[in-house]
């Protein structure tokens, strides 16, 4: 294995490796400053790319491979060999996620034959509560870093999807102080892909929804229901027929009605979206569990709390199903296939299935 190139002599690294964590959607000047700091304190930097296996959305438009390339192109040639990328899925469970990051970093450093006796430095900002997770990496040295930039990834995405379709040149020119030249070049090329137009349409729809609630006295909190139905080694899924997430896989579900319990809403949505023809008494007898999924970032719509009802039909012959309501199709999918579909699920629906079926291990 080739040896890592030496860092600059004036960098005085004093850790075996450094780590920075982010979604980098997209990579901006604040991220670039943090990466430079991480490279100053160690000969090797591990860049942890969060939300690595999510479907494309206006919030997560770029795959982890695209983000890795965006970051790599923004580095001087001499530093590119000193950076490794670690894709990391969202677990919506902080303790589990931190454990997965630690194991991933340890495995990567072991593969690189890095002696961690000098310790691992975690470079990050504690400027808002969303970064509180950084204090959970006990045993790593937390190097608090303030990049002093006004760059914000959410604002960059809003500018990109809101303006690039009308005037790409003007939009990118307005971002020149907020993103490295390599990022702007990437965004220019990416705007020509068909994914851009689809996500820009979805961005406009979600913005209209948020604008409609802007006059409310309090930020809205939506309550929804979902139905996870297992039968003979399969799970019942639907394909979304409309935005958000048009064409993505999802478990049947929707918004709770005013005069329904969560159970009644779950059964109603299940029947409307899949045409599953089973007696209500049969469904009630097959109900095995109800779990609440309430992570603040679980849905692109905003703060959405869902109640997932798990029904196990045993080993019956698979009942006939058809897509209905806002589901373009309904299908029984083998549970063993769910892993390969991870990046084609709406919001956190893959993780909902992981909760009931243990798809991703510990």
Automatic annotation (TrEMBL):
Keywords: Nucleotidyltransferase, Transferase
Domain Nudix hydrolase: start-end pairs: 217-360
Top-level taxonomic group: Bacteria
Sample GO molecular function, one term: nucleotidyltransferase activity
Database matches in InterPro entries: Cyt_trans-like, NUDIX_hydrolase-like_dom_sf, NUDIX_hydrolase_dom, Rossmann-like_a/b/a_fold
PROSITE patterns the UniProt entry points to: NUDIX
Protein name, as recorded: NUDIX domain-containing protein
Organism: Piscinibacter koreensis
């Amino acid at each position: 294995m080739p040896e890592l190139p030496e860092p600059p002599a004036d960098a005085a690294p004093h850790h075996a490796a450094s780590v920075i964590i982010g979604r980098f959607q997209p990579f901006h000047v604040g991220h670039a400053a943090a990466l430079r700091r991480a490279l100053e304190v160690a000969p090797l930097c591990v860049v942890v790319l969060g939300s690595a296996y999510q479907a494309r959305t206006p919030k997560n438009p770029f795959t982890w491979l695209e983000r890795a390339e965006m970051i790599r192109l923004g580095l001087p040639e001499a530093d590119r060999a000193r950076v490794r990328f670690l894709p990391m899925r969202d677990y919506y469970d902080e303790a589990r996620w931190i454990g997965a990051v630690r194991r991933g970093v340890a495995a990567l450093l072991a593969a690189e034959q890095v002696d961690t006796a000098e310790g691992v430095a975690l470079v990050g900002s504690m400027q808002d509560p969303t970064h509180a997770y950084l204090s959970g990496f006990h045993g790593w040295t937390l190097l608090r870093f303030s990049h002093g930039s006004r760059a914000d990834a959410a604002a960059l995405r809003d500018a990109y999807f809101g303006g690039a379709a009308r005037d790409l040149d003007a939009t990118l020119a307005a971002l020149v102080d907020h993103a490295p030249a390599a990022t702007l070049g990437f965004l220019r090329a990416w705007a020509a892909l068909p994914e851009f137009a689809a996500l820009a349409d979805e961005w406009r729809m979600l913005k209209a929804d948020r604008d409609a609630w802007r006059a409310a006295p309090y930020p809205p909190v939506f309550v929804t229901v979902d139905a996870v139905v297992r039968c003979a080694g399969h799970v019942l899924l639907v394909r979304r027929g409309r935005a958000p997430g048009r064409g993505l896989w999802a478990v049947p579900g929707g918004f709770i009605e005013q005069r329904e319990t969560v159970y009644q809403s779950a059964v109603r949505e299940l029947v409307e979206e899949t045409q599953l023809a089973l007696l209500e008494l049969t469904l009630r007898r097959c109900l095995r569990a109800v779990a609440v999924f309430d992570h603040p970032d679980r849905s692109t719509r905003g703060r959405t709390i869902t109640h997932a009802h798990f029904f196990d039909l045993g080993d019956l012959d698979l009942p006939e199903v058809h897509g209905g309501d806002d589901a373009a199709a309904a299908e029984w999918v083998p549970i063993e296939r769910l892993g390969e579909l991870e990046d084609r699920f709406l919001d956190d629906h893959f993780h909902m299935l992981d909760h009931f079926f243990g798809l991703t291990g510990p």
